[in-house]
User: Fold this.
Amino acid sequence: MIPRPKPQRFRLRRTMMFMNAQKPGLIKDAYIYGCDSIMLDLEDAVAENQKDSARFSLYHALKSIDYGDTEVIVRINGLDTPHWKEDVRVCVAGGADGIRIAKCESASDVKAVDAAVTDAEKEFGAEEGRTLLMAALESPKGIINAYEICTASERMFGVAISGGDFRKCMQTKFQADGIDLIAARGQMLIAARAAGIQCFDTVFTNLDDDEGFLAELKQNKAMGFDGKSLINPKQIRPVHELFAPTEKEVIQAERIISAYREQAAAGVGVFTLDGKMIDIAFIPGAERTLKLAKACGMYNGGLV
Amino acid sequence: MTIEKSAVAGTLESSDAMVTVEPGENGVELDISSSVMNQYGRQIKQMVLETLNRLEVKSGKITVVDKGALDCTLKARVECAVYRSCGKSEKNISWGGTIR
Assistant:
């Protein structure tokens, strides 16, 4: 038995790697790759006639494998299937950190899962509210309803777009410059930020196209994504490297926080540092930079 | 539980095990083959018997073809095969109770 600590609603989630919950060879050592979160998949990766078997496998993996600091999320089957309720039960019983709701289209989808999770937490004696939720938006309706989805539950920590299904709905295909998803990504990001939760981009499926992957990552970072869904361990490092702050940003963040705390202690709210105005509005950004830097091994100080 | 009909769970992929259960009258008949029989044969047998005991399977023919599965995988495959044989593998599983 490996009791996992209480999941944190807000933590670093640069990389979230999909793993087939049915394949023991994959899930037994998923954590060694060093991604921030793993996503054990009960949905598309598992054939329809193996859904039951995947749950048994998932339960024992959750109970016996020490995933350490890697967050463990489970993608459950869609709400239009007969599988999702049992998926929720096994996730909660096994102590997964969070659940990813596939094909989420409305606040009522989130609320249905939230209620099932609460029931399961009662049934299995887990702390109520422990299990986190995230939603995958895979359809135009999901994107339109992004804000109500993001704010539908206290358990929600993030939303992600699922490019494959969304492109199909929009009658388009993958475009190197991202024009196919630009509106959807933008709308989802705005909704997530307005709701104060995290936002993750879709997977990049061409594993041989390193250049294309990097270009998409750069766009993700520029748009303000927190992280990306991945399908292969080799994708982890580029994301961590690219999402890492520069040395200059780290030093700057450190100086802003130290100076702000000093000034605030002396009763000053706004001041200038290197010719730039600094007030409390700069602090969350600077703290985020330092937290990222800490996770990337670039910062060892005690400010965060 | 009583094994009502033949059922299979698992695959022959590396790190997995394929477990077949069939109805029988003469107690538990166990047939194990494994790619790591010399090193882990006894442990595999013990894990399978423990699991069957927990599920209160008193009789039946159990065939395990192991490809180097971890204990947790082996348990999952035996449990799933037995539950499938009774048509009870899909819902209302006693997670943390019978399954532990």
